[in-house]
C-alpha cells in the first residue's frame, strides 16, 4: 500500500512538472510583453504566441512577422531576442553599455541575438561572434 501511494505521488509530480506548450491569443500576453513589442517593434505584427509551462513556471514565446522571436517571463520581461542572420535587432532593445561596446569595438557588425539570464547577458553579432557581458553591461569575454 505504501509503495502504491509513493508511486501515485511520483506520477502526480511528473504530470504536473512536465513541459506544456500551448498556442494562445496575443491578448493573453502579460501587459509588459505587449508594451515591449509595441515600443521596440512597432512595424511588426505578432504571428504566434506560445505559452510554455516548465516546472510550474510560465513563459511566453512570441514570433513576429519579421521572423524575430522573443521570449518573456511571466511578468512580461523580455530575456531573449533572436533575429535571422540578416536581421538587425533594434538598438533600443540592447542595454546601452552593451550597445556602446559593440559600436566601438565592432563598428562593421550588428547585433542579431540578445539573451539575459540570472548571471550575465550574451549577444551574437552578424559575423556570428558571441560576446558575454555581466548584467551591468561590462564586457567579460568572447564566447565560442
Describe this protein's structure.
- The chain is of the alpha+beta class and 144 residues long.
- It has 3 helices and 9 strands; from the N terminus they run αβαββββαββββ.
- It has helices spanning 2-17, 31-40, 96-105, and strands at 20-24, 46-54, 57-64, 69-72, 78-82, 111-116, 120-125, 130-134, 139-143.
- The longest helix has 16 residues, at 2-17.
- The chain is globular and about 40 Å long.
- The chain starts with a helix and ends with a strand.
- Mean pLDDT is 88; it is low at 4-17.
Please write out the topology:
Elements: H1 2-17, E1 20-24, H2 31-40, E2 46-54, E3 57-64, E4 69-72, E5 78-82, H3 96-105, E6 111-116, E7 120-125, E8 130-134, E9 139-143
Antiparallel strand pairs: 1-2, 2-3, 3-4, 4-5, 5-6, 6-7, 7-8, 8-9
Short descriptors:
144 residues, alpha+beta, 9 strands, globular
Give the count of helical stretches: 3
Distance between the termini: 53 Å
Strand order of the largest sheet: 1-2-3-4-5-6-7-8-9
Q: State the share of residues found in helices, binned by percent.
A: 25-40%
Element-level helix/strand string? HEHEEEEHEEEE
Describe the sheet with the most strands.
9 strands, antiparallel
Q: Overall pLDDT, averaged?
A: 88
Poorly predicted runs are 4-17
| Secondary-structure-derived class | alpha+beta
Portion in beta strands: 35-45%
Radius of gyration: 19 Å
E-strand count: 9
Shape: globular
